[in-house]
Design brief:
The protein has 3 helices and 8 strands; from the N terminus they run ββαββααββββ. With 136 residues, it is of the alpha+beta class. The protein has one domain: Sandwich (Jelly Rolls). A 5-stranded antiparallel β-sheet has the order 1-8-3-5-6, with helices on one face. The protein has a 3-stranded antiparallel β-sheet with strand order 2-7-4, sandwiched between helices. The longest helix is centred in the middle third of the chain and has 14 residues, at 58-71. The structure holds zinc ion.
Amino acid sequence: MKILNNSFTVSTGKRNEMVDITGKVEKAVADAGISDGTVVIYCPHTTAAITINENADPDVVHDILLTLSALVPQDKDGYRHSEGNSDAHVKSSIVGCSETVLVNNGQMQLGTWQGIYFCEFDGPRKRSVIVQITGQ
Ligand code: ZN
């Protein structure tokens, strides 16, 4: 069994944005050269996240960001965190900092409409994504 670590950067252009990173993860899996195993996609930031959702209709991403911003307003009476980005921290915890995808015959087992997204909640920034591939 092999364990391979990889990483890449994502430059975001808006305060709230979902960037499709499926192709970058696919490349990391291909470079690892495994047939079967798993890939963990990890976000080492407290105001960003990783999720898997539809990458066919861009309105889905729009609606996810719209809903998160309605649930977690940028300004709210009672926020204490002095950086002024409490909403971004809350969104990061709601969405989560990692996803795991199964790899079979060298291919990630994503559904037809699934893509892997880096979720920015306090951009624009230059971010890192860590990928760990375990398999044989
Ligand atoms: Zn903060």
